[in-house]
Structure to design on (380 residues):
């Protein structure tokens, strides 16, 4: 692969020979695939909203450029700077989420968005990766000090974040936050007693959400009994997969119109226009990234890197699995983007931020022996 010389000790040179280049390439390919699918899915939706045909395409490109810059630039920083950046962004995101209750724009009964200069920003998207970093920082500190009481700080952070998300309300993101935190806590050495407590709390919370939150009740009932609910989008999604077959109808040839085709149901667009093989390629790319990262983390000795990296990649993979599962009618409907694929500026930038930190954390650490060898080669 073409790149800087191994004797190049500049920031870019050191980054190039230590970053996980295979994962980086797959991230970029997912972004490219996302742009292609937005081009295929969004024109008819833009016209239905009385906008220019390529309105959503243009906006996706506008966000795609800074997303690539964020991914690359953050992947060059050290784990120490990742920790500091994550804490700062977490505090900033909390402030912005609080601001949504005051100046937020209400969409479908939820206040999750702040409009700045004509652009809608969803601050809770920044909470996802930054919360992972804060949790890893706290649990790593608990491991170093051997003080079990420190873990309560992470529980306090979790409760704070969940309360803010439930008040918006955003039950789906709340569930993802809890699941990611649980994985990190498990990796940190959670005892069986804590596992039982957390599982009981999770089941109780799910039952309460089903009993007292109407839209959660409606979506679960519609999933369990399709004949009694509004399953228009899910029905169209399955029809799109059936129409596409193994190889698809071809780019721009899709005829089944799904209301959220460019966002939540873009995977169904891939199924209709590019076929089963394209869907398998996309799903395989996500599986490759998750498995490759976990294998790299298995060799990690730094506790913070292990916990942060595990949380970030599980969060990334979980979001992809839920989106694909909903599109295939394997899970109840939930408004959730497919990482790097779906249209959406806040989601794209936040995912680039998180995966940039992941690439920074999983960079190969050069040993002192390797450093002396490189320095000797440069002198020669």
């Amino acid at each position: 692969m073409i790149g800087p010389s191994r004797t190049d000790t500049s920031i870019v040179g050191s980054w190039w020979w230590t970053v996980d280049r295979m994962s980086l390439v797959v991230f970029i390919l997912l972004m490219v695939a996302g742009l292609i699918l937005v081009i295929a899915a969004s024109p008819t939706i833009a016209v239905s909203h009385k906008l220019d045909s390529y309105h959503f395409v243009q906006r996706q490109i506008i966000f795609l450029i800074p997303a690539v810059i964020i991914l690359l630039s953050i992947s060059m920083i050290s784990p120490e700077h990742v920790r500091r950046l994550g804490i700062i962004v977490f505090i900033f995101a909390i402030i912005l989420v609080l601001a949504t209750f005051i100046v937020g724009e209400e969409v479908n009964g939820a206040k999750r968005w702040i409009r700045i200069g004509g652009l809608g920003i969803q601050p809770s998207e920044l909470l996802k990766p930054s919360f992972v970093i804060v949790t890893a920082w706290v649990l790593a500190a608990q491991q170093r000090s051997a003080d079990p009481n420190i873990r309560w700080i992470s529980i306090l952070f979790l409760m704070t974040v969940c309360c803010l998300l439930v008040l918006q309300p955003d039950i789906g993101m709340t569930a993802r936050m809890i699941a990611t935190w649980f994985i990190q806590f498990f990796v940190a050495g959670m005892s069986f007693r804590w596992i039982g407590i957390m599982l009981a709390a999770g089941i109780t919370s799910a039952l309460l959400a089903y009993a007292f939150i109407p839209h959660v009740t409606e979506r679960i009932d519609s999933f369990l009994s399709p004949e009694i609910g509004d399953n228009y989008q899910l029905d169209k999604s399955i029809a799109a997969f059936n129409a596409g077959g193994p190889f698809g109808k071809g780019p721009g040839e899709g005829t089944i119109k799904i209301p959220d085709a460019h966002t939540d149901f873009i995977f169904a667009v891939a199924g209709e226009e590019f076929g089963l093989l394209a869907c398998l390629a996309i799903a395989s790319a996500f599986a490759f990234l998750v498995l490759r990262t976990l294998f790299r983390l298995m060799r990690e000795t730094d506790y913070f890197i292990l916990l942060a990296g595990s949380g970030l990649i599980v969060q990334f993979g979980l979001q992809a699995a839920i989106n694909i599962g909903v599109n295939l009618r394997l899970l109840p409907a939930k408004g959730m983007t497919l990482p790097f694929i779906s249209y959406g500026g806040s989601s794209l930038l936040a995912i680039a931020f998180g995966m940039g930190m992941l690439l920074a954390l999983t960079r190969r650490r050069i040993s002192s022996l390797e450093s002396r060898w490189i320095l000797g080669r440069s002198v020669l």
About this structure: Strands lie at 105-107, 110-116, 119-121.
